[in-house]
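Methods — Computational structure assignment.
A single polypeptide chain was analysed. Its primary sequence is given first, followed by the predicted tertiary structure written as structure tokens.
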Amino acid sequence: MNILKILVLNAGSSSLKFKLYDMSADARVVAEGNCQRVGLPSGEIKYVGPGGEKKVFEMPLPTYDEALSQTIQLLTEGEGKVLDSVRDIDAIGHRIAMGGPHYRNSVRIDDAVINAVEALQDVTPLHTPPQIHTIRACRKLLGEDFPMAAGFDTAFHQTIPPEGYLYPIPYEYYEKHAVRKFGFHGLSHHFVVERYGQLRDGGLAGTRVVTCHMGGGSSVTAVLNGESQENSFGFGTGESLVCGTRCGIFDHAAIGYLMEKEDISFERVEEILHKESGLLGLSGISSDEKELEELAMQGNKRAKLAVDILMRQVKKYIGSYAFLMGGLDAIVFTGGIGENSDYCRAGICRGLEEFGVLLDEDANRAFNRSEHRISKPESKVDIWIIPTNEELVIARDTASIISGNL
């Protein structure tokens, strides 16, 4: 089967991002967009058409069915039309946050896959329900036999050994309920480390790489010989670095303490830790690192503290992962912050010179948002900015699966 047009869908807690790829033209992006504020009183779609023209449409998006319907309408009608019919789409690839221990690779979606993912929605309650809803909306629109594939954020981390993914709690909870570290952002970490292997012109054999995906959600991965050995996320997306609104690593002993002192429920503590903490909670201003960075340079102490904590945590993970792998050959920065903040990259690398990490300050400032080596020629450790492309990973895997090559 010759797969030409692939639509990649990434459903979030209140959004539906989409990219349409032409696989016959070296996976060229034909059109893309983001349906925002799904399920809220007022919605918005940001759309980039085939010529790069950008449009914003205000409209109600009460459900993911409606967001999908509006997406298809944009692709097939009006000024931004790129398809004659929805049937011009050969396959759809879905980003799925949680695949649990079941999936080591992307797979074709069938009832068994839907049921397996749905059974894990308690682990990732913000991500899995809208992703399953979007799959069902596609089936309703296109039929249950329409070819679709799932790309899992957890799949890349299935190479983490038991000593890396087991928690030191009674073993029965792992056996009965699979309470263990899973790791996330795997599609991103996989893409950038694979791209690093291409850029170094020597593959990934023998390499020890730390990939830093830094954005609204942030995580760090230790990659040995191209395989994940450790990821800073855990059972869900709560454990990790400080994120935009999530606290990251947090002592569970403080949960009961806060419940007692504040006279609040466990559910309220969870809401605080996931939606009111992180950079937002520390600064009291914003969850946007770029905004906090600018305020920090203007002398705002709380903004500076929030960004300093993020940089310190990334540095701690780089150090621990380097020791875990017996050395370090490269640090790769990606994600909204990793690709765009020369301030954070410089702060993270500062003080690591004794370990052979020599940042080229001029290159670091000059190459935001672009793929580039930013370490000095004499640096023992490569430092790279590599923009991530999770959707491309899903598109390629979807084409291979539906064509019967994966």
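Note: The chain has 15 helices and 14 strands.
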